[in-house]
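hi! just following up on the protien thing from before. the input was this:
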Amino acid sequence: MSNEIRVVDRQISAFDTVEVSESATPTYDRDDGRLRAAYTANADDEREYVFSIYRYGDADTFSVADGAKILDYGEGVAHVLTPADAYEGEN
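and the predicted 3d structure came back as:
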């Protein structure tokens, strides 16, 4: 038995959209700007996300939409996949 795997491996910038399985755990490389994820190709929980950059400065907390995926954080900046249907960023 084998499973077909869908691979997402692309450079991504603020406000770009990407479809990823809700159950996937994507990674983001801050240095090269690449988003990577792998999950079962027949996943029935794909969702459209907007790549968002949150600046939280010296705060200990920041708010994200339900269902958001935190990809990377540090030095007052967080890279987040925000569900497109919940996105409230600038156009």
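The chain has a mean pLDDT of 92.
The chain has one domain: 5-86.
cheers
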